[in-house]
Inverse folding.
């Protein structure tokens, strides 16, 4: 249960409904979390991704306790339906996020177009081997516009220096 | 003019005369405007004289449940007011801007669909390669690093599982597209 301002406004009904009841909701979430652990980047509906993100991050928090911890193993056994992924969770994902706290996932929304009429999203674990969906904005120092602006700035600075030298003399 | 008026008065007086005669029972009453004859089977009628079949409108609509229907046509003004209300129009999007990577228009808070399709294609290739390296479909526990044909792996990546790609690196896949910057921020 998430404690937040949104929880206060919505009278405790923070979660959206998935499927047709509690068992079906948990099955959907387990399916999404298992796929995320296997592929580290999945595409699903925005509602399913947004709900599963919370559980995927809590799963890493439990995995950090180690595979000798009985509670952590019980949680991993419940949330991961394909059992060959349990070593991957404890030996790959838990050491990767050992020095990090909290936000282990990224969620991106996909635009709704004529081809993609459902509200889809991409959910991923950080540190995956795939190319990044949102690259860092790059500077272009060799583009002609930036060279001209840089030259103009240098000329302006030189002119200001000459003016400052002339003023005390006058 | 005068003849037409006379004709109208004549017709009106004839009508009044008929109505008066009807009131005193001297003229047969007018039949229903839309008379629907009931379907009588001659054989059935001759066999069972005590069984009276429903005739007329009630036999035609037997067992049909009539629903309420609009009595009057809505005026054009009312219809247009309802259908073309400003709240029902598609609102123009104000939060569109060109993608810094490819220049196609994208919406704030969403991914660029043009860039995403390109990245998804590359991601699917890498995923397929990873699937081929796994024996019996069991997931590997090592970290994964992708090496293209024109690349060399660093010392820190030697302990990891290396996915060899036969082709060269795509030109858009620059160095800062490796998911490394999350460690510092
Ligand atoms: Zn783009």
């Amino acid at each position: 249960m998430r404690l937040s301002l949104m929880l206060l406004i919505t009278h405790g009904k923070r979660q959206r409904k998935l499927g047709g009841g509690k068992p079906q909701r948990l099955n959907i979430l387990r399916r999404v979390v298992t796929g995320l652990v296997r592929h580290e980047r999945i595409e699903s509906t925005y509602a399913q991704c947004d709900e599963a993100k919370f559980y995927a991050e809590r799963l890493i928090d439990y995995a950090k306790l180690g595979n000798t911890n009985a509670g952590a193993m019980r949680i991993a056994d419940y949330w991961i339906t394909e059992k060959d992924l349990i070593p991957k969770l404890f030996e790959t994902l838990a050491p990767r996020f050992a020095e990090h706290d909290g936000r282990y996932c990224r969620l991106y929304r996909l635009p709704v177009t004529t081809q993609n009429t459902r509200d889809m999203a991409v959910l991923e674990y950080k540190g995956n081997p795939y190319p990044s969906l949102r690259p860092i904005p790059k500077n272009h120092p060799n583009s002609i516009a930036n060279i001209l602006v840089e030259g103009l700035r240098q000329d302006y600075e030189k002119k200001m220096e000459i003016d400052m030298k002339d003023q005390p003399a006058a | 003019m005068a003849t037409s008026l006379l004709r109208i008065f004549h017709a009106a007086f004839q009508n009044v005369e008929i109505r008066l005669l009807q009131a005193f029972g001297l003229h047969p009453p007018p039949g229903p405007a839309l008379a629907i004859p009931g379907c009588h089977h001659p054989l059935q009628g001759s066999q069972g004289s005590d069984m009276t079949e429903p005739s007329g409108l009630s036999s035609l609509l037997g067992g049909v449940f009539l629903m309420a229907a609009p009595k009057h046509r809505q005026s054009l003004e009312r219809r247009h007011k309802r259908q073309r209300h400003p709240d029902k129009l598609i609102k123009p999007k104000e939060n569109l801007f060109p993608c810094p990577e490819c220049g196609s228009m994208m919406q704030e808070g969403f991914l660029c669909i043009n860039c995403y399709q390109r990245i998804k294609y590359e991601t699917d290739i890498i995923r397929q390669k990873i699937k081929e390296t796994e024996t019996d479909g069991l997931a590997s526990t090592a970290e994964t690093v992708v090496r293209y044909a024109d690349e060399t792996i660093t010392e820190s990546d030697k302990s990891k599982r290396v996915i060899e790609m036969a082709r060269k690196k795509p030109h858009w896949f620059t160095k800062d597209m490796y998911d490394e910057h999350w460690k510092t921020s």
About this structure: Residues 11 and 17 of chain B are 10 Å apart (CA to CA).
